[in-house]
Amino acid sequence: MFFKDPRETVLSRAKARRVKLLAGMSALGLCLTLTALTPAPVSATAVYRTAEAPEESPLVEAVAVTVDGVHAVTVDSRETALALLEEIRRGYETPLTESAAFRERVELLPCLTEPEGVMAPADARALLDPENTASPVALTVLTMAPVTREEAVPFVTETVLIPDQYSDETSVTRSGVDGWAVNTYSVIYENGREELATLTDSRIVTEPVSEIVTQGALPGSRYDSRGVYIWPTTGVLTSKFGSRNISIGSSNHKGIDIGNAAGTPVCAADGGVVIFAGKNGGYGNFVAIQHDNGAVTHYAHMRKILVEVGQRVAQGQQIGEMGRTGTATGNHLHFEILPDGETRVDPVGLLTGELQRY
Ligand SMILES: [Zn+2]
Questions:
Q1: For the stretch 200-218, what's the b/e string if a residue is b when 16 or more beta carbons lie within 10 angstroms of its beta carbon?
Q2: Residue 51 pLDDT greater than 80, yes or no
Q3: Phi and psi at residue 126, in whole multiples of 5°?
Q4: Residue 354 Cα, ligand 1 centroid: separation in angstroms?
Q5: How far is the CA of 312 from the centre of ligand 1 (A)?
Q6: Is residue 187 within 8 Å of residue 145, measured between CB atoms?
Q7: CA 287 centroid distance within chain
């Protein structure tokens, strides 16, 4: 057997070994931190020789490697320790690597131990291996390297306000185009896996083209009611509101007639919601629009209807084409305003501006 005293337990042997190791660690001059790439040489042979009596010795000189202060492995020499640490570190270096270091504080401590306490380099290497997730003393290798990437430069959007349009009126007048840049990052890898990339340089290859969007500056929507009415079409006022003496239609005219060519655009007198769109007896093709204040406008005899019930229309938006459907002797628009939604009044007093002939 290796030990002289057979009663000596494994435990007490381990304890003795630990005491010797601690004695070595207390000599601060022997500690070496390996986080720097080029460790300073250490010479301290004299310190631990005095601690050992020759006659007890199966003990041999060795080097303990500690990781964050915890004894990890023991190898035969400082050279062996440095070589296996170097091997582990180099495993994560590439031609681009600018620096490499262990995240943990690694120290080499000369010590004395029984010969069987000295590990084979391969066994020590396996315990310290960063990929050995089962090992409590597995090291972490941090490397840093520059990485160049070609990346898109997103375009920006410029908004141009249009003074006489409403805020919901937008249009893209020029589409944006992404640019391209060659970006250089300083990338930190942890055991070869990218952890953090810091942009260090950017060279624009193609400038982005900004997108230009126009937007109305007026608050609200163009579909809101303005509370004023514009003439719904162009032409000639052929029949006024009220009592009249003609051969066809009511003797009490409930609206006004504006005559013009078939197909002349008919537009909403104010913004609102279409509440009727279709054939309506003597009115022919007929549209009714309800405005936000409850007022209703009627448009009759149209050749063609361009809106649907429920549709929101803006003031001035075309809703149909002038015609002579229903009870009509010629192409004209019959137009009514019902300010309370029920009672027809003379529209002429409520319409702003002049009736345009064409
Ligand atoms: Zn009429």
A1: eeeeeeeebeebebbebeb
A2: no
A3: -65, -40
A4: 19
A5: 25
A6: yes
A7: 46
Query: Do the domain assignments include residue 185?
Result: yes
For residue 175, the CA-to-ligand 1 centroid distance in Å is 48
| Structural domain boundaries enclosing 168 | 145-218
Q: Are residues 120 and 149 in the same domain?
A: no
**Residue 4: inside a domain:** no
- Residue 182 CA to residue 201 CA, distance in Å, equals 8
Cα of 257 from ligand 1 centre, angstroms: 5
pLDDT digits (tens, 9 = 90+) for 4-19: 333 333 334 434 444 3
Collapse the DSSP code of 220 into the 3-class scheme (helix H, G, I; strand E, B; otherwise coil) and give the result: coil
Instruction: Read off the amino acid at residue 219.
Output: P
Predicted pLDDT at 55: 56
- What is the per-residue pLDDT across 144-167, written as a single tens digit (0 to 9) for each? 999 999 999 999 999 999 999 999
For the chain, how many structural domains are there in total?
A: 3
CA dihedral for 73, 76, 82, 86, sign (positive or negative): negative
CA of 237 to the centre of ligand 1 (A): 10
